[in-house]
């Protein structure tokens, strides 16, 4: 019911507004181009062999690996079987971390969403806690924990769980912010406790979105779990690192591991895509 | 039940939504609160149920100031003071019976309720309430699959499940078509007369207030400007409540308040709501 600002009624003022908009866009483009150019210059200056000179040899190493694998292609099926247990270990680490991360993120999200939080004063505290969990890379946490707990899958699980909690918590909280508060309000009017209000009033609304994010996180965590194998948390990453460090003669193993990882991630990706589409569409066919 | 509202105010920012309101209700009855959108009717009801905290004042229920309650005691009061909303406020994905059983959430142990474990007696009571309101055949449907009028009756069933002394109804028929509006109002009236429960309903139309209420409280700009019987609700009084510039026609029988007024500001206020 409020009238639009009077200035917009005059065509001249409108034209001035548009000119200013265009000017801002121009400035942003200039800044972007400058950043790109300086970034390339820096990369070239810092790189030992020279960034521009090295770019032609980017494919030398993969070519070497592939040619050796092609020569010994008969070994591949055997290696695929041999590495299957470590692949399962990697998947296990990812699955457990995703599960715990999702549960923790759900709780933290409800504690950090304005209008829902049980203790509104703690909202910023919980948010900062999630920021910290999200900001520290998994590999840093894993390295510290491996130093403290020794090698094995547990440090990787804790590291990935922490990161998942932070990352999912923020997404979960954003989904919960958009939830319709009317059901929860109706429950509050009957004297329901906070837990009951969340469980019946909010969780059913956000469950499809939350599950969808959790599935996406599972894919990401498979990759994270594989990478953490490099620093000694077991799984297929450890085998990959060993094979790569051995160098020539084991490149067929490297390729077998890559094939396994690629297949796994593609399959999980395809399955979770379908599941997520179904969740978000609420079980309706396309 | 005796209810004394004493000098209750609610301030949002610098604006008083409810401004020093006092009234007393001694015996049951059907009380209508009327007024323009933004007159403070909803805020008043929400303070009674403690969904909104009052800025100052007292609400004494049988001697206890319910505005001073907190924690468990506040939830105990809420479980005795049922509320029905304009948008029904049910859990859309759950079935009708589960929604009715939610009336007991404040009185049962948390864990079993979260797992939807209810005693046979509780379920029987929920079903018999649905039976009484004529929607037992919808008991297993999802709440969201019901029509508005049916959903509002489920909300009333949830309220009855609370076995409340007081039922608050915040614009219970504002989202319903005239036929469903009548069914819902008749249901509320029946509950009030047959069970002897007190009902306080925010109503949009003079018409409905005159037909169902034993007592009418008129609010304007957060203040009580009328408190009396429907018979005392003359055209002059209505102008007081809805604004002196509002034009009324006595013959208007529409449930749409917009038809009662040709005032442009008034229509604008309705659209803002």
TrEMBL record, chain A:
GO terms for molecular function: ABC-type phosphonate transporter activity. It is found in: Cell membrane. It holds the Pfam family BPD_transp_1. GO terms for cellular component: plasma membrane. SUPFAM superfamilies: MetI-like. Keywords: Cell membrane, Membrane, Transmembrane, Transmembrane helix, Transport. Coiled coil: none annotated. It is a multi-pass membrane protein. The chain crosses the membrane at residues 23-43, 93-119, 139-162, 254-271. The keyword Cytoplasm does not apply. Residues 87-272 form the ABC transmembrane type-1 domain. Its main location: membrane. Belongs to the binding-protein-dependent transport system permease family. This is Phosphonate transport system permease protein. It comes from Phaeovulum vinaykumarii. The lineage of its organism: Bacteria, Pseudomonadati, Pseudomonadota, Alphaproteobacteria, Rhodobacterales.
UniProtKB/TrEMBL annotation, chain B:
SMART domains: AAA. One of its GO terms (cellular component) is membrane. CDD domains: ABC_PhnC_transporter (cd03256). GO terms for molecular function: ABC-type phosphonate transporter activity; ATP binding; ATP hydrolysis activity. It holds the Pfam family ABC_tran. Transmembrane segments: none annotated. InterPro entries: AAA+_ATPase (IPR003593), ABC_transporter-like_ATP-bd (IPR003439), ABC_transporter-like_CS (IPR017871), ABC_transpr_PhnC (IPR012693), MetN_ABC_transporter-like (IPR050086), P-loop_NTPase (IPR027417). Keywords: ATP-binding, Cell membrane, Membrane, Nucleotide-binding, Translocase, Transport. Residues 3-246 form the ABC transporter domain. This is Phosphonate transport system ATP-binding protein. It comes from Phaeovulum vinaykumarii.
């Amino acid at each position: 019911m409020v009238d639009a600002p009077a200035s917009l009624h005059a065509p001249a003022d409108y034209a001035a507004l548009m000119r200013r908009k265009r000017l801002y866009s121009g400035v942003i483009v200039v800044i972007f181009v400058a950043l790109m150019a300086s970034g390339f210059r820096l990369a070239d200056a810092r790189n030992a062999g020279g960034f521009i000179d090295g770019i032609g040899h980017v494919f030398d190493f993969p070519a070497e690996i592939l040619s050796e694998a092609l020569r010994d292609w008969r070994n591949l099926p055997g290696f695929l079987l041999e590495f299957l247990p470590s692949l399962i270990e990697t998947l296990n680490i990812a699955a457990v971390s995703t599960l715990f991360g999702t549960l923790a993120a759900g709780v933290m999200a409800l504690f950090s969403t304005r209008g829902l939080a049980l203790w509104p004063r703690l909202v910023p505290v919980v948010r900062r806690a999630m920021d910290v969990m999200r900001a520290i890379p998994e590999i840093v946490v894993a390295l510290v924990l491996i130093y403290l707990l020794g090698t094995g899958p547990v440090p990787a699980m804790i590291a990935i769980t922490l990161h998942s909690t932070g990352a999912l918590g923020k997404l979960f909280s954003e989904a919960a912010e958009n939830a319709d508060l009317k059901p929860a309000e109706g429950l509050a009017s009957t004297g329901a406790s906070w837990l009951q209000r969340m469980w019946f009033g909010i969780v059913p609304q956000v469950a499809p979105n939350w599950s969808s994010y959790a599935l996406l996180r599972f894919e990401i965590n498979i990759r994270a779990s594989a990478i953490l194998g490099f620093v000694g948390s077991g799984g297929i990453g450890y085998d990959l690192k060993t094979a790569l460090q051995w160098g020539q003669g084991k490149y067929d193993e490297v390729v077998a591991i890559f094939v396994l990882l690629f297949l796994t991630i593609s399959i999980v990706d395809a399955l979770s895509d379908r599941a997520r589409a179904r969740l978000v569409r609420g079980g309706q066919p396309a | 039940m005796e209810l004394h509202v004493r000098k209750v105010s609610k301030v949002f920012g610098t604006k008083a939504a409810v401004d020093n309101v006092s009234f007393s209700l001694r015996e049951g009855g059907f009380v209508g609160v009327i007024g323009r959108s933004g007159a403070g009717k909803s805020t008043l009801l929400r303070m009674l149920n403690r969904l909104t905290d009052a800025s100052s004042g007292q609400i004494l229920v049988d001697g206890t100031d319910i505005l001073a309650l907190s924690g468990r005691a506040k939830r105990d009061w809420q479980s005795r003071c049922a509320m029905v909303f304009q948008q029904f406020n049910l859990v859309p994905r759950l079935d009708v019976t589960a929604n009715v059983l939610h009336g007991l959430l404040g009185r049962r142990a948390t864990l079993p309720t979260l797992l939807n474990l209810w005693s046979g007696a509780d379920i029987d009571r929920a079903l018999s309430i649905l039976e009484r309101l004529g929607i037992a055949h919808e008991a297993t449907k999802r709440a969201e699959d019901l029509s508005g009028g049916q959903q509002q009756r489920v909300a009333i069933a949830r309220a009855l499940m609370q076995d409340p002394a007081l039922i608050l109804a915040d614009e219970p028929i504002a989202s319903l078509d005239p036929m469903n509006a009548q069914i819902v109002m008749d249901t509320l009236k029946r509950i009030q007369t047959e069970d002897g429960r007190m009902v306080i309903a925010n109503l949009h139309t003079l018409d409905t207030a005159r037909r169902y209420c034993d007592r009418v409280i008129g609010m304007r700009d957060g203040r009580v400007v009328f408190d009396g019987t429907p018979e005392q609700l003359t055209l002059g009084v209505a102008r007081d409540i809805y604004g002196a510039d509002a034009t009324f026609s006595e013959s208007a029988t529409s449930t749409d308040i917009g038809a009662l007024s040709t005032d442009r500001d008034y229509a604008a206020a309705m659209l803002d709501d």
